[in-house]
Amino acid sequence: MMIRLSDLGQVYIVCGKTDLRKGIDGLATLVKEQFELDPFSGKVFLFCGGSKDRFKALYWDGQGFWLLYKRFENGKLNWPRNQNEVQALSSKQVDWLMKGFAISPKIKNMKAREFY
Length: 116
Hints:
The chain has 116 residues and is of the alpha+beta class. 17% of the residues lie in helices and 23% in strands. It is globular, with a radius of gyration of 16 Å.
């Protein structure tokens, strides 16, 4: 069974590297103090460590915190590196991220060719 994080609520990605040794209190403090967001808002906050093959998700359901931890057996996450930034993700971007794709796909500029 795969958990669809976007079904829980708005998903925010904490860009850059986060120390995944932090638990619920440490991650909630990071959300509140560094990014001035409310960890009790019912939103999902995603954190990734340096190896990019695992992440944690912090979620408040109104009664308590959930801390989800996922480690990929094959492949890595395409995690944004711009430290000290949080981005709101669409449900499609969350799906892309979980499949290892970039949340902002880049389209290569190709020179237009004329065909005769």
